[in-house]
């Protein structure tokens, strides 16, 4: 039977078959037992996990050997058999350190990681430790703390309108959140708006292939973007801090809970913009709130207050704006303490039988929108907004 840490490594760490993965996890498991003076060492271990580029087997063997020496002292394991190539290489690297003192091995490990971090591009998405903050995003603030990954839309001066970069960054953040060790994921907005929806200047940058190519690429992007929400495996919660427009509203039907400030409003002015529903709302909204109520929103562009959206089932609960943040985050922190696997599995059983249908709806909505974006109705509405805002 393999040692417990190794079996855990195989379960928790998909890359555990790589040479360096086992000691990384082993240290992780031992971290509570470590003294504060080993913080640099622990940070270095975390830093290794963030390296985007593979440093190569030679370096990984060095890291492995230094790790073993730093934590266990000189190698006293029997030499692996001649055909056990990987373990033989690991054993050789460790054994070659002879009687190097543990402290020196630890220092050498930290130095080696530090030289790697400056020479190889490292992922800036996650900082070491349990409180992790993103630094690599232009349009988002992503933090991970108390078992919650918070993805905050961060273009407050544009009311958190989603430009093309933000679509890509949200997809990236969701993919990272689906794999990190947080229990739940939250989407919220910075500033007075949750989001004003699609950035209408997305329509202005026409490629050499013309508007047809733009519309085609837009539909591909939108389909992939919405697909990330359909497939997101952990509880996904919207903290709607202010007004929400367009795609930021329609996506709410794919969230597992929606908490709203009483300042929030919910507006999908698709017909006004010559457009049509997306985010699977043509399917989720009639189910959530009845076809007639969904029509009022999605076809006639009726704007709902938070209270109305709650009464229609789109919003889970509304809080007074003055206590919104405090009350919601207290609640979310309590949720995040629940067993993560149980939450994930329960979400799966609630959502999975709809997944195929949702992907089909998404594909159809994107295809219809692609046509809409080429219509005079849509062009005129966008031109009208942009000229009102002196952007043309
Ligand atoms: C064909 C290629 C497509 C590529 C993209 C692919 C994926 C797209 C899929 C999604 C499709 C559609 C879904 C939708 O979301 S439709 C809804 C679109 N949103 C809107 O119509 C809202 C437009 N904005 C407003 O009506 C108002 O700005 C507001 C939100 C009601 C706020 O009004 P305000 O008076 O309080 O503030 P205002 O001065 O207008 O705004 C401050 C600055 O923010 C800019 N801004 C706000 N919203 C947007 C936006 N949606 N797009 C671009 N810019 C926006 C506004 O211009 C101001 O900027 P500035 O200070 O003048 O520089």
UniProtKB/TrEMBL annotation:
<comment type="function">
    <text>Able to isomerize both 3-cis and 3-trans double bonds into the 2-trans form in a range of enoyl-CoA species. Has a preference for 3-trans substrates.</text>
</comment>
<keyword id="KW-0007">Acetylation</keyword>
<dbReference type="InterPro" id="IPR029045">
    <property type="entry name" value="ClpP/crotonase-like_dom_sf"/>
</dbReference>
<dbReference type="InterPro" id="IPR051053">
    <property type="entry name" value="ECH/Chromodomain_protein"/>
</dbReference>
<keyword id="KW-0576">Peroxisome</keyword>
<dbReference type="InterPro" id="IPR035984">
    <property type="entry name" value="Acyl-CoA-binding_sf"/>
</dbReference>
<dbReference type="GO" id="GO:0005782">
    <property type="term" value="C:peroxisomal matrix"/>
</dbReference>
<dbReference type="InterPro" id="IPR001753">
    <property type="entry name" value="Enoyl-CoA_hydra/iso"/>
</dbReference>
<dbReference type="GO" id="GO:0000062">
    <property type="term" value="F:fatty-acyl-CoA binding"/>
</dbReference>
<comment type="similarity">
    <text>In the C-terminal section; belongs to the enoyl-CoA hydratase/isomerase family.</text>
</comment>
<dbReference type="GO" id="GO:0005739">
    <property type="term" value="C:mitochondrion"/>
</dbReference>
<keyword id="KW-0597">Phosphoprotein</keyword>
<keyword id="KW-0413">Isomerase</keyword>
<dbReference type="Pfam" id="PF00887">
    <property type="entry name" value="ACBP"/>
</dbReference>
<dbReference type="InterPro" id="IPR014352">
    <property type="entry name" value="FERM/acyl-CoA-bd_prot_sf"/>
</dbReference>
<keyword id="KW-0809">Transit peptide</keyword>
<protein>
    <recommendedName>
        <fullName>Enoyl-CoA delta isomerase 2</fullName>
        <ecNumber>5.3.3.8</ecNumber>
    </recommendedName>
</protein>
<keyword id="KW-0496">Mitochondrion</keyword>
<dbReference type="GO" id="GO:0004165">
    <property type="term" value="F:delta(3)-delta(2)-enoyl-CoA isomerase activity"/>
</dbReference>
<dbReference type="InterPro" id="IPR014748">
    <property type="entry name" value="Enoyl-CoA_hydra_C"/>
</dbReference>
<dbReference type="Pfam" id="PF00378">
    <property type="entry name" value="ECH_1"/>
</dbReference>
<dbReference type="InterPro" id="IPR022408">
    <property type="entry name" value="Acyl-CoA-binding_prot_CS"/>
</dbReference>
<comment type="pathway">
    <text>Lipid metabolism; fatty acid beta-oxidation.</text>
</comment>
<feature type="domain" description="ACB">
    <location>
        <begin position="37"/>
        <end position="122"/>
    </location>
</feature>
<dbReference type="InterPro" id="IPR000582">
    <property type="entry name" value="Acyl-CoA-binding_protein"/>
</dbReference>
């Amino acid at each position: 039977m393999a040692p417990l840490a190794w079996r855990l490594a195989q379960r928790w760490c998909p890359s555990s078959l790589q040479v360096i993965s086992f000691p990384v996890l082993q240290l992780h498991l031992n971290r509570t037992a470590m003294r504060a003076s080993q913080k640099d060492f622990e940070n270095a271990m975390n830093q290794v996990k963030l390296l985007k580029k593979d440093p190569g087997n030679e370096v990984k063997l060095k890291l492995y050997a230094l790790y073993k020496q730093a934590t266990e002292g000189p190698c006293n394991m029997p030499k692996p058999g001649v055909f056990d190539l990987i373990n033989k290489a690991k054993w050789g690297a460790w054994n070659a350190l002879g009687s190097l003192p543990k402290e020196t091995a630890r220092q050498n490990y930290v130095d080696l990681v530090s030289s790697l971090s400056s020479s190889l591009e490292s992922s800036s998405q996650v900082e070491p430790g349990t409180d992790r903050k993103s630094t690599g995003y232009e349009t988002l603030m992503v933090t991970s703390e108390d078992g919650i990954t918070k993805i905050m839309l961060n273009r407050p001066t544009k009311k958190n309108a989603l430009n093309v970069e933000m679509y890509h960054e949200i997809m990236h953040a969701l993919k990272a959140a689906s794999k990190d060790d947080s229990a739940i994921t939250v989407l919220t907005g910075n500033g007075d708006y949750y989001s004003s929806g699609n950035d209408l200047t997305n329509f202005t940058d026409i490629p050499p292939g013309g508007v047809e190519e733009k519309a085609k690429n837009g539909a591909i992007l939108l389909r992939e973007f919405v697909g990330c929400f359909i497939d997101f495996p952990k509880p996904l919660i919207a903290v709607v801090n202010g007004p929400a427009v367009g795609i930021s509203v329609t996506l709410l039907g794919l969230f597992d809970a929606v908490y709203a400030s009483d300042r929030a409003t919910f507006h999908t002015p698709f017909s006004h913009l010559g457009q049509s529903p997306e985010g699977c709302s043509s399917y989720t909204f009639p189910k959530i709130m009845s076809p007639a109520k969904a029509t009022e929103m999605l076809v006639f562009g009726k704007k709902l207050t938070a209270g109305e959206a709650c009464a229609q089932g789109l919003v889970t609960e509304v809080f007074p704006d003055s206590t919104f943040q405090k009350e919601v985050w207290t609640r979310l922190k309590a949720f995040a303490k629940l067993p993560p696997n149980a939450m994930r599995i329960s979400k799966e059983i609630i959502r999975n039988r709809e997944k195929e249908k949702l992907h089909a709806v998404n594909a159809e909505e994107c295809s219809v929108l692609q046509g809409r974006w080429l219509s005079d109705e849509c062009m005129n509405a966008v031109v009208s907004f942009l000229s009102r805002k002196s952007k043309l």
